Amino acid sequence: MKKIVLLRHGQSLWNKENKFTGWTDVILTPEGLQEAKKAAILLRENNFNFDYCFTSYLSRAIDTLNIVLKGLNQEYLPVEKSWRLNEKHYGVLQGLNKAETAEKYGAKQVQIWRRSFDIAPAPLDEEDPRNPALDPMYRKIPKELLPRTESLKDAINRALPYWQENIFPKLKDNDNLLIVAHGNSLRGIIKHLKNISNDDIVNLNLPTAVPYVFEFDDNLKLVKDYFLGNQDEIKKLMADIANQVSKK
Fold first, then answer.
1. Is residue 182 flagged as an active site residue?
2. What pTM value is reported for the model?
3. 3-class SS at 24?
């Protein structure tokens, strides 16, 4: 049985502060570091030995991956990084508190920005310092490809070709792949794998640093998927994410 594990990064500073993060490069909190260590323990207890790893350009995902690999004694593994696995870009909302934004614009509007499939927040101005085209991290990427805002649909359209062309083909010659990325880029992969509708995918909330396992047969057909860990705790974590708009 071949397996791909999807892992959202551990809690970041702006996760804790309930801010829209997007492409802002925010570090892990102490809690996030511990979440990553816990993920490594779960994977080790379930005898995961990975062959190849993927992550985004953002340090919260890279640091989570490094902690997991250290906990598994698999730091030698090859790692491929891609900006296409970055989080959804939240445009002018990046850095704003979700609950305070809901008070200003209404909870319904903020929920549309957060979770609608094809409605994006207002874009950053080109000269805005948050524009990734001005960030040296993305200097080798054509500016026309770099977003100044995204809907979930946009983020999926960015990540999915990378999945289809770079990640999934690796499963043919490898048994276990690990992808450490972000809530929305991973949601796009899950939507594709499980054939989830546009309406239903917006209700999927991925908790931080909880391994999500997908098992495939030798023909690379999906057989089953499941989260590792206490299922009641995972449900509570999912509910907490859904309620972020009301939390200060």
1. no
2. 0.93
3. coil
